[in-house]
Every structure is written in structure tokens, then in C-alpha cells.
Design a protein that fits this description.
This protein is an alpha+beta fold. The protein folds into 2 domains: 56 residues; 134 residues, Jelly Rolls, CATH 2.60.120.40. It is built from 1 helix and 15 strands; from the N terminus they run αβββββββββββββββ. 23% of the residues are buried. Pfam families: C1q.
Length: 199
Amino acid sequence: MRQFAKKSMVLQKICAFFSAQAEKLEKQETEITKLKQQAEGTCIYSKKKNNNLKIQNGKQFKPVAFSASLYTGNHDITIGTFPQRTTLVFTNVVTNIGKAYNSNSGIFTAPVRGAYQFEWYIGLPGSASHPTGAVLVKNSEPTFLAYGHHSSLYGTSSNGITLLLEVGDTVFLQLWPNTKIFDNIFHHTTFSGHLLFTM
């Protein structure tokens, strides 16, 4: 009888132990469910709050793209000539995602390290004495030049470049010395750029 009683007590203790463990597991499962719900709610909020953020190479960044034309008025203009390179300010901003282009200075400033693509198109006024040229400048160094010369008829020229930029690097267009550039309501002279990918 004593042995039976001892076995019964051991079985009761084992049952009580497993019952307590089951309760703990049930509480933990409830806590895990609550945490999952909270995490999902936080992720949804974060996604809504930062819906314009992209993830690349494990890093978050805002998209960057701009496009602007030289002239905002309603008649033809010709700028130049100047004896030295002169920064062109593209005031008619069509797109400025990420706000990296400054329409007051004409300067694009890289907000993140990465590869950027730039394109520019220039209007040639048609001048027997002066060609048209615009060079893209990175910080203070000239890179590629768009150039053309039409003695009497209107024309265009263009160029493009991909640059690796560090945060804070500047990019802008300058009118080449002793050249003229043309624009009007059809926006022949434009400057555009966008971030291809971060590095």
C-alpha cells in the first residue's frame, strides 16, 4: 500500500509539473501572438510613414530625380557670350524628387553616395559668329561637353554621363566661354539627373 501511495504521489507531482508547464507554454504563446500583432502594426505604420523610402543593399534611401529647363518665360531668349565659364540656372523645375536640385543656384547636391545619371540638351540659336556649348561640372572639374554650331538655323546638341558621387558632391552646367545658348517656351535647353543606385 505504501509503495502504491508513493507511486500515486509521484504521478500527481509529475502531472502537476506538466500541467504547470502547459500553462506556461499557453501564456507564452499568447504573449508571442500579442508581440506579433504589435510588430505587424508597427511595420504597417512604418511602411505608411516611410512609403517613399527605398531599400537597396540593406540601406534605406529616398529616390532622387530632377528635371528642369533653362527658361520659364513666354518668348525666345539667348544667353551669352561670356569670357569665362558661367553657371546656368535652370529655373523651370518640372521634377525635383528628393529636393537635391537647387533652382536658385542651378546646383545639384548628392544626398547619398551612389551612381547618378545626368543628361543635358542645349538649344543652338543659329549664329555665324558664336557656337553653343555647355559643360557638366562635378564639384569644380569639367567633365563632358555638349557642343554645336549652326551659322543661321536653329539646332540642338546633347550629352550624358554617369558619375559616382559622394554625399555633398555638386553637379551643375556651365555655359562654355564665348558661346551662346537659346531657349523658349518649348524648353529646348534642359538639365536632368537621377540616382541609379547607392554604393
